[in-house]
# Entry
Amino acid sequence: MYQEIDLDKIDIHAEPPTEEPARQFYFMAKCREWVREFEEENGRVPTACVTTFGCQMNARDSEKLRGILREMGYEAASEERADFVIYNTCTVRENANTRVYGRLGQLKPRKKKYPHMMIGLCGCMMQEPEVVEKLKKSYRFVDIIFGTHNIYKFAELTATRLMSERMVIDIWKDTDRIVEDLPNKRKYDFKSGVNIMFGCNNFCSYCIVPYVRGRERSRDPKAIVREIERLAADGVSEVMLLGQNVNSYGKTLDTPMTFAELLKEIEKVEGIRRIRFMTSHPKDLSDELIEVMKNSKKICKHLHLPVQSGSTDILAKMNRRYTKEQYLELVSKIRAAVPDISLTTDIIVGFPGETEEDFEETLDVVRKVRYDSAFTFIYSKRTGTPAAVMEDQIPESVIKNRFDRLLKEVQEIAAKACKVHEGTVQEVLVEDVCDHDPEMVTGRLSNNLLVHFYGGKELIGRYADVELKECRGFYYIGEAAGMPDIMRGNVC
Ligand code: SAH
Ligand code: SF4
Ligand code: F3S
# Structure
């Protein structure tokens, strides 16, 4: 969402403006001119594809890139058909980097065959100097490389590439700058991610994110609420507030504000029916937030609360700044306030120095909390992080054994936790036609569980009351119990 700007009224022969976002609209207009020339020469509009490799924040950045591409005049296409391919990369684990190099290798012959094709690389992986060195040396066919801090400059960098025909590289180490009001193109009409903050200050000892996303900075609450009001006016009823640690929102603002206070402001926006957020760091989750969640009609009954390990010793080495007992105490408090909340988590197996006893502590937390689902990760050594040089890196075979045991435990518990809702009627926001059966649609409960039920695609984006007939492990087969709101006339 942004102010509509008529790019055709911009004088692209004048000097570019110095202020943002006007400067970027100028370069979008310049690229649009190039797109028109391409169309005249080739009898078709050029196509583009942005592929997301990372987390929800990475996905939101991709939506911004797609919005800018649309303004330039590019048409969206699959990666195989696109004239302009952009990889929005992730570097949180080693295999994320390996995937990008593999995919780039596959693009090379295509670029050779179609020299007009452009390849752009951006995102977290580009913030690592050795990656950029490798690309400069061995992947000369890449056209544009930029990082996480200057994504708003995408139009300018594309225009520079179109005019110079040279590899364009623009990576910033850090920034305190937030450019508002640029275009974006949402994946869904009815729900949207909303960045509330950028970066991270926590420096968990295994994690690369603070190095590639920079220091924590919060968006102005008025800009956030304005964006959500515009989204609501555009038909969005569910928002997902995004940040690496939303619980520390507002600390860096000129007039500090807590995350709980921000939630209360967002709750007032008419038309917004569901509010989600991620990620919550346990050390910063306040009683004030629990109280707001308890009293809210809109905040979804789901909390993603990464534990990472159940061992207090390992948690200290991870620099997580809570103990096993504090985490369990926090879970009890949340459950007491919001009894039907669904809890999910992230767990790392095989952190340096993790003993069998430490691992048992993790299993113990899993059994005590009974997560509705958990993302389990094998520890990945990230060069530049403190953990990468810690002694006692754990052998692969030991990690594999622990990982399998953890996964089994998590899955068994999650399947049982999912089943408790069987037979109830719950409100579902319908998201898509079901992948496996075109007669069915797929939607999400407030607690984030998926439900498939018979219904047509006209239900997409609508709320329906659905009876949860049968639990199939991690999702439900349901039956529409009431008329969906579109037919009841209470569309929000
Ligand atoms: N800001 C979020 C997480 C961002 S990264 C938070 O603090 O919870 C998402 C997840 O990736 C982390 O929760 C962690 O479980 C996992 N992760 C991060 N670095 C990792 C590494 N080096 N090896 C394995 N998993 C890692
Ligand atoms: Fe990484 Fe920790 Fe920051 Fe999450 S809170 S992004 S795990 S450093
Ligand atoms: Fe990956 Fe960057 Fe997200 S490293 S997990 S895309 S913040």
Observations:
- Residues 426 and 466 are 5 Å apart (CA to CA).
- The pocket of iron/sulfur cluster (ligand 2) is lined by residues 200, 202-204, 207, 209-210, 244-245, 281 (CB under 6 Å).
